[in-house]
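Loading example: each entry is read as two labelled lines plus one structure line.
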Amino acid sequence: DTGVSQNPRHKITKRGQNVTFRCDPISEHNRLYWYRQTLGQGPEFLTYFQNEAQLEKSRLLSDRFSAERPKGSFSTLEIQRTEQGDSAMYLCASSLSPSGGRPREQYFGPGTRLTVT
Amino acid sequence: QKEVEQDPGPLSVPEGAIVSLNCTYSNSAFQYFMWYRQYSRKGPELLMYTYSSGNKEDGRFTAQVDKSSKYISLFIRDSQPSDSATYLCATLITGTASKLTFGTGTRLQVTL
């Protein structure tokens, strides 16, 4: 297993277009997280899945954003009607479920850098 | 006010120096404290984590947490050029989500 992978690595789109990103987590990990990182800032939580169920969404995730994780494997993040403010690095992370109340390490992918022109 | 504050730097030090990186946080409910390293165009990778107050050492790296003052520190001894990266502190509250709350990151440059 080579870790978390994300595709594409870079995406340039025009304002108003729809874009979709894919994340392939570490195979045995049942948790999958999406974060967004803008220039000079730390990553911010967007949403997470436990298997195929989306259990929490941040207020940052407007109605134009939708995420899915069919069959609890890979996940997609779609942004509809992109805006310039959506330009950011979109990071995916995966982990095992907490054990004995202790959180498990989240392994991050390399991210998808979105530029909206 | 952000829940986790971190000086963005940049911080430039000569090779071999001791580096001190710091964060403050506001939410008393945070229980776990992490330090991530992020190289340019890469995702963050976990360096160390601590639970509650105390110190933890791993090779050249030492993490400290003082919950009474809500202060998190990372010390790097004998810094190397390969340590040049952005260092992100992060916290979380144990529970169903385990979502990470990050600081802004401090960019470190170790020069020869």
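Chain B has a mean pLDDT of 93.
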